[in-house]
Amino acid sequence: MVKLLTSPEFKFSQPAVIDISIVIVSFNTCEVLLRCLSSVQKYTEEISYEIIVVDNASEDRTVEVVAKKFHDVKIIANKYNRGFSAANNQGIILSKGRKIVFLNPDTLLTENSFKKINAYMQKHAEFSILGCGITDQSNQPFPIRLWEDSPRDAVLKILGLYDLSLELEKMGQMKANEVQVISGCCFVVERELFELIGLMDENYFLYNEEDDLCRRARQSGKKICFFKKTSVQHLHGQSTHQDNHREKVIVEAYKSNLYFYSKYYSCFWNLVLGLLYKVVFLAGLFRSAFRHLKGSDTVDDSLSLKIKLLLMSRR
Q1: Helix, strand, coil % (nearest 5) of the chain?
Q2: Residues 269, 185 within the same domain
C-alpha cells in the first residue's frame, strides 16, 4: 500500500537566471572534491552555471582549501553535520538555476555532460528529473537501480543477498528512457518541481533521498528519465567509508531505511522488515563476538554497534 503524500509548500525567493546550479554536499572529502570541481570547470562549457558546495562540518579543511582554489564556488559551511537531505536543501534554496544538479563529491566529469543534459531536458519538457549513466574507475558501466525498491528487494538487501549486477542486465533490456527512480550520485531536477512537491525530506540523514523524491514526483504526475547518452565516473564510498564516522553511517542508514519503509510500505511489511533486521543484528552480534575473540574485528564488526542496532527502537 502506497500512501499519497503531501509536502510543505516551498517557493524560491529569487528567479532563475542561469541554466544550471550544481549542488555538491561534502564531508571530509577534500581531495576528491577538488578533483570533482576541476572536472566540472574543465568540461562544462556553452551553458551558464554556478557551483554550490555545502560542507557538513568537515574536519579536513575542505572549506578553507576550496575557497582558496575555486574563487567562483559558493560555499555553505555548516557548523555540524546536517545530513545529506538538509544540506542539499540549503543548496536548493540558494540556487539560481533553471535546473538543479545534485552531484556527489566523489564523481568526475569526462565530457560536457551538463550541456547534453540541459539540451535534452529543454527538448523533453515531460521529464522533471533526469539521471545519467555511471561508470566505475575503469570506465566500465556501473549498475544503476532504475526501478522502485519493493518489499522483496528490501528483504534481500537486509539479508545481504541483493545482486546489484542484475540491474545491468535490466538496463540492457531498456527500450525507453522513462524510469521509476535514478541514482543519487548525479541527477538533475527542474526547478519548478520543488515548488510543486516541496524540498527533500530531511528525515533522511543518509540514503533513500532520491528514491523518496522520485516517488513524490511520480505521485504528482511527473516523469523521470534515464539519460544514457552521457555518464559520470563515480569513485564509490569516499564519504561513507571513513573509519572514524563509519558507525554513524551504519546507524543513520538503518534509521533511514526504517523511515522509508514506514512511509511507503504497508504495516505488515514494516513489521516483517523490522523483525528481520533484529534477527540479522542478533546473528551479527554473535559473529562480531567471535571475530572480537580472534582479534580480527573491524568497524563494521563492533560489538557496541551491533548492540546499539539491536536495541534501537523504531522512529
Answers
A1: 45, 20, 35
A2: no
